[in-house]
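Two folds, back to back.
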Amino acid sequence: MKKIMKGFTLIELMIVVAIIGILAAIAIPNFVKFQARSKQSEAKANLKAMFTAQKAYAAEKDKFSSLVGEIGFSPERNNRFTYMSGTGGTKETRSGATATPAATNTGIEYDSFKYNDTAVFVNATLVADVTASPCNFKQLGVDTSGTQPIWTGMAQGQVDTDTTLDLWSISTDNRTANGTCASASQNNPGGEPIVETNDVNQ
């Protein structure tokens, strides 16, 4: 009696490979977006920490400060985002194994010691002062032009591999986003981070 060998035909194998290819084509872009969204949580958490530090400083000194050392803001190393609390001044450089804070620092650069891929993390672009908001918000730093001082901080960083950078802001002011920003027409209460340029959707 002959044994009958069972197995898959070539057509069945080709169909399986085609199905796997289609599923991969759908899943991989969604996975990359999910990964980029998870990296944005760093900016939101650190901006809230900067806001809390500003409010604590203002409660004690009765004013806001654009200096990160003065308010006691220093995020953990491995930060993908550059954080800015004011215009001008200097930014803490994180290109070496140890960072050296200065009294004039109005921001903290992304950790170029870890993320040293200059093709993705373009230093000159990341550390530039973000003085104009795509959402038409008040500018970065302390604004004393109104009856009540307003402070706005920002975070700018790379969450994927393209040239567009994520831009987030937080303010003590209640704001409505206008202009050509990612959150246009949204209301933004004071103390809540808002995305101005969403790199995930680019």
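---
second:
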Amino acid sequence: MELLAKSEYALLALLELAAYYTRGEPLQIRHIAALHAIPNRYLEQQMAILKRGGLVKSIRGAKGGYVLARQPWKITILDALNCLEGLEPNVSVKRDMPDKPENQAIQDIWQEVHDAARSALKRYTLQDLYDRRKAKQQEGMMFYI
């Protein structure tokens, strides 16, 4: 399973929106793009997809921008990837392969891998992502006396 660049950029944007969630302030695309060196136009496309998917809302006006449509602890990473990449909750990994024991064995293991990945992505939320970033930032801080 590979994380596509468009999904990584969108997750970075969602992470920033999660960080601002308690403030109740919208974030502008140009701010998010500047923080993560993402082209504005590309990020606009990803935000439009997230908006159509019901994960973010746009707010018009001079102080407008984007906000999360739900609390960050209620949006899973799987929700975001389903929205961005069009993954289906019950995708079958069966291929048109001969019905031989070795092919069945491969498909069984691949299905287990697929199910485990989906389970992990479903278990983590934007809040978890935000909390991990915060913990990693604090790990990197060193205090000298």
